[in-house]
Amino acid sequence: MSFRYTSRIIRAQRLLGTQTCLNGSRTAFIPPVWQRCRGVASTPNAEKVLFPGALNSEFTDKLDFIQPSQEKAIPTYRVMNQYGEIIDKEIGVETEDDEALLIYKNMVKLSIMDLLMFEAQRQGRLSFYMVSAGEEGISIGSASALHPSDVAFCQYREAGVYLQRGFQLSDFMNQLFANAKDNGLGRNMPVHYGSKELNIHTISSTLATQIPQAAGAAYALKMQNIQNPDQPSRVAVCYFGEGAASEGDFHAALNIAATRQVPCIFICRNNGYAISTPTSDQYRGDGIASRGAGYGIATLRVDGNDIFAVRRATKTARKLALENGGQPILIEMMAYRVGHHSTSDDSFAYRQRVEVEDWKRRDNPITRLRKWLEGRQLWDDAAEKELRSSTRKQVLRAFEAAEKEKKPSIRNAFEGVWEDLTAEQRAHVKEMRDIIARYPKEYDVDGFEGGVKGLDDLLQENK
């Protein structure tokens, strides 16, 4: 069936008020309120626009251009102030004490891993790394409010999502060293994690590609949710920075998510900088949240340093995303990128060191949650010292173990694309085998699992 023919069917079904699912069943199609309108031309006494491109807009005889700079900025939702005090005590935090302690420990673990891995890269033991300093609350807080079956698409500063879902320290280290125990078998850059078991797609270096992928996956989940009403409904969640929102992928993804009404939560980490570009050079509008309304998407701006606000916003967004068959949600979570963009960056070349130190001292998600825990007598200096000491030892043990593992077999350089080796690939394998045999000192492969035998086995299996 052609795309054009399918589109005509969908348009006809919308006119009839139904839409057909993949299993052949029909469900009611409910357009947004602002799209509901009589399908007739404007009458002489009409008070609202009836053109199909801008429904329910009132006529006016005043020529006033909208001046965004003169409008109030979108407010930022928070539950707890920077002193760890709950603003609305009647509503509270909706988080049990034990859960808050677990979240805090995970944030500390992430920050310690970041610090040690950054130092390891500077020592030449890792080739690349990216820290999450100042943004731990966004990834860990949002992940704690999602269902484990929800499908996640991360960028490269969401190690906290993996950690909260059960990714082990050994999993992180194996990927960073690209050793034989790495899920990706050394085929990806460091910090580009992935886990099929945890329903998290592998991170891609190419900026913003995960955003339209998430919209497409959410459409598939919408069909699954409809076809399997007895199973728990799932959503897709997509993480990206405000820099990625400048890519065309962002706009295409939000538009298709809105028009298809898919259950997808788009979470933008607005940390103030896209690599070396501050937000003042990225856009003139009111952040990223202002774009959600333009696409007809329910939108919220949240204080990313407030773990309880992040959790409540994500939990509510998930509920909304599953209503009426599905709808997209955009959440802009505000933070400050304390660390450099990556180990390949020196952020003090484009921002003042005092600015960074001020943010580190004034407010961050870890210290804010710690103040709340101390206020409830759930935490103290002794517990903090013990946690940091034991966590540091755990990270170093996992690091040292992963560093000693061998690299994946060389055969993995040729596998994973075609089911069987092509004739051209076989020629490449033979050529590599010949070069290694002729120059053993220049190409020492003992550090790879199986050594040169990996290539021999591959050729034998693909005769």
From TrEMBL:
Keyword Mitochondrion: yes
GO cellular component, one term: mitochondrial matrix
Free-text function comment from the UniProt entry: The branched-chain alpha-keto dehydrogenase complex catalyzes the overall conversion of alpha-keto acids to acyl-CoA and CO(2). It contains multiple copies of three enzymatic components: branched-chain alpha-keto acid decarboxylase (E1), lipoamide acyltransferase (E2) and lipoamide dehydrogenase (E3).
CC cofactor: thiamine diphosphate
Keywords: Metal-binding, Mitochondrion, Oxidoreductase, Potassium, Thiamine pyrophosphate, Transit peptide
Cellular localisation: Mitochondrion matrix
One GO MF term: metal ion binding
Coiled coil: none
Highest taxon in the source lineage: Eukaryota
Protein name listed in UniProt: 2-oxoisovalerate dehydrogenase subunit alpha
Signal peptide, first to last residue: none
Family stated for the protein in its record: Belongs to the BCKDHA family.
Location (main, coarse): mitochondrion
GO biological process, any: branched-chain amino acid catabolic process
EC id: 1.2.4.4
Domain (Dehydrogenase E1 component) ranges: 104-410
Catalytic activity: N(6)-[(R)-lipoyl]-L-lysyl-[protein] + 3-methyl-2-oxobutanoate + H(+) = N(6)-[(R)-S(8)-2-methylpropanoyldihydrolipoyl]-L-lysyl-[protein] + CO2
